[in-house]
Design goal:
By secondary structure, this protein is an all-alpha fold. Helices cover 57% and strands 0% of the residues.
């Protein structure tokens, strides 16, 4: 019985650790891609180009 409880505890801890690692990497990815509100000025707007490479 002690062996099965130990295996359950190890499996649960490994699963929780895995979820924490995945959650933190996902949070870092989303924080990296979010632009701050101050960066929405006209300087940071994307410029569209026509087929000959000139800005529209």
């Amino acid at each position: 019985m002690a062996d099965s409880m130990l295996m359950y505890a190890i499996t649960t801890a490994a699963f929780i650790g895995f979820v924490i690692i995945l959650g933190s990497s996902r949070a870092k990815r989303y924080r990296h891609h979010v632009a701050p509100a101050a960066a929405a000025s006209s300087e940071n707007k994307k410029v569209k180009y026509s087929s000959d490479g000139k800005p529209m």
